[in-house]
Amino acid sequence: MQVGDILRKKNARVVTIRMNETVGIAARLMRENNISALVVKDVVRSEGNNTAAGMFTERDVVRAIAEHGANGVNVKVSQLISVQRLVSCSSSDTLDDVRHLMNIHHIRHLPVIDNFSLAGVISMRDIAAAVDQITTSAPQAA
């Protein structure tokens, strides 16, 4: 199974945030959309373009509060992400390849980028659900 197979079954809408927004805004967006990660877009480099500069997750919210206390909500998203090491995949990657990428980088969400354009986001939960579906629909040995 490939990443594209999962994306076709998911909501096509990808929630994004700009690098110059705050942790407070990011946390509110995640809560409003019942998600645990946002794709970060660089306003300068990707204006009118559909590319990702990074990922911002619930872990980043926790880190901001742990490091800055209550003022963590005012920290810019750009201060907490590493744009130099954006890890991504393509819709043609296999689930095994993506799971391996997530494991070696200790991450749970990957932007899916096809032809330099953001196609979606895949999570460890998406992969686990797909694997569960494959194993429960496979014929049982007698």
Secondary-structure blueprint of this entry?
Blueprint: H1 3-7, E1 16-18, H2 23-33, E2 37-41, E3 54-57, H3 58-68, H4 95-105, E4 109-114, E5 117-123, H5 124-137
Parallel strand pairs: 1-2
Antiparallel strand pairs: 2-3, 4-5
Structure characterization notes:
This protein has 142 residues and is an alpha+beta fold. It has a single domain, classed as CBS-domain, CATH 3.10.580.10. It is built from five helices and five strands. It has a three-stranded mixed beta sheet. The protein has a two-stranded antiparallel sheet with strand order 4-5. Helix 2 (23-33) packs antiparallel against helix 3. The longest helix has 14 residues, at 124-137. The relative contact order is 0.20. The model has no long low-confidence stretch (mean pLDDT 88).
CATH architecture call: Roll
**Shape label:** elongated
Total of domains: 1
Rounded average pLDDT: 88
Sheet with the most strands: spatial strand order: 1-2-3
CATH superfamily: CBS-domain
Helix content: 25-40%
List the total number of helices.
Answer: 5
Number of strands: 5
Derived from helix and strand composition plus strand pairing, the structural class reads: alpha+beta
